[in-house]
Write a structure and sequence with these properties.
The protein is 42% helix and 19% strand. The protein has two domains: 88 residues, no CATH class; 228 residues, 2-Layer Sandwich (BirA Bifunctional Protein, domain 2), CATH 3.30.930. The termini are far apart. It is elongated and about 120 Å long. It has 13 helices and nine strands. The protein binds phenylalanine. Phenylalanine binds next to strand 8 and strand 9.
Length: 337
């Protein structure tokens, strides 16, 4: 067979192979077979010397042409297969869509946000402090006498170096009053720790929001009015507030505050244990001894403070019956909010 005819034959053989719509891997093999170093076209180049001298130029031109044609056709086919693959990836309209799951706010976080929003409108800034505190800020500066049983009352976690995990957010009051001059009006949200037996109503950590207002002539009447505004905004217009005399070392006078049960309207139900009232926190006028500890003149300034437990309030509001659910982070629980 003449070498010229061989070129024609290879060309039609190649076109046939390509017409069968080869997969990408087959295209790679075809490329090797025709264009590889030991491929059939290189073979032809080696045979140029066997062609009659006056036709060698013509023959060389033919195989060069064959080589570029093969190269172009393979390239085109490869490109086409790639775009077909992509098209079939993005255009299968029968596939179900990708489901995006959206997170929800943890009930503690959304309760904290509600508190911040309402107190912001009442003129309160937000202050925070560390969870590991000195005994001085957690107790002494707050007028807990040394060796006083009130320190035990709070079931404190003591650290080896003598610091404590704060048992309430009140040490942030102390930080604030040491840093700033009155007027001070701030809420202090945060985590607190108590070494308590864990059950449906108690956990070793929980959240409080404390409030502090210090200025000239701050009165208990303002404390009541502020908390009443807050409660009506948070629990609803119909809610009533009740103050019961109580004791805290850092306030004098002190009281415990209850809201009328917003579930039964005060008639008595399971959540308020038939009393019609729900306890939400403590409050009082800042004790002069606390002012002395932070170098604020108790003759010139007065102030009020209050503290509320977030878990307790969130549990009442969302009807959660076990505090531990709030810390386990089981998605089946969290998804409900
Ligand atoms: N710190 C108190 C507690 O944890 C709550 C409180 C704060 C009471 C401010 C009165 C004033 O029990």
């Amino acid at each position: 067979m003449s070498l010229f005819k061989k070129v024609d034959e290879l060309r039609s053989e190649f076109k046939q192979a390509l017409a069968s719509n080869p997969a990408l891997s087959d295209l790679e093999r075809l490329k090797q077979k025709y264009l590889g170093r030991k491929g059939v076209i290189n073979d032809l180049f080696k045979q140029i010397k066997d062609v009659e001298a006056d036709r060698r130029g013509e023959f060389g031109g033919l195989i060069n042409q064959l080589k570029t044609d093969v190269q172009d056709l393979i390239d085109a086919q490869v490109r086409e297969s790639h775009s077909e693959e992509q098209a079939s990836d993005s255009l299968d309209v029968t596939l179900p869509g990708v489901e995006y799951t959206r997170g929800t706010l943890h009930p503690i976080e959304s309760t904290l946000r509600d508190f911040k929003r309402i107190f912001h409108r009442l003129g309160f800034a937000v202050a925070e402090g560390p969870e590991i505190e000195t005994q001085w800020r957690n107790f002494d500066a707050l007028n807990f006498p040394p060796e006083h049983p009130a320190r035990d009352m709070q079931d404190t976690f003591f650290l080896e170096n003598g610091s404590v995990l704060r048992t309430h957010t009140s040490p942030v009051q102390i930080r604030l009053m040491l840093e700033e001059k009155p007027p001070i009006r701030s809420i202090m949200p945060g985590r607190v720790y108590r070494n308590e037996a864990i059950d449906a109503g108690h956990y070793c950590l929980f959240h409080q929001v404390e409030g502090l207002y210090v200025d000239e002539n701050v009165t208990m009447g303002e404390l009541k009015a502020t908390l009443e505004l807050f409660c009506r905004e948070y629990f609803g217009e119909a809610v009533k507030l009740r103050f019961r005399p109580s004791f805290f070392p850092f306030t004098e006078p002190s009281s415990e505050m209850d809201v009328s049960c917003f579930l039964c309207g005060g008639k008595g139900c399971r959540v308020c244990k038939q009393t019609g009232w729900l306890e939400i926190g403590g409050c009082g006028m800042v004790d002069p001894n606390v002012f002395k500890a932070v170098d604020i003149d108790p003759e010139a300034y007065t102030g009020y403070a209050f503290g509320m437990g977030i878990e307790r309030i969130a549990m009442m509001k969302y009807g959660i019956t076990d505090i531990r659910l709030l810390f386990e982070n089981d998605v089946r629980f969290l998804k409900q909010f």
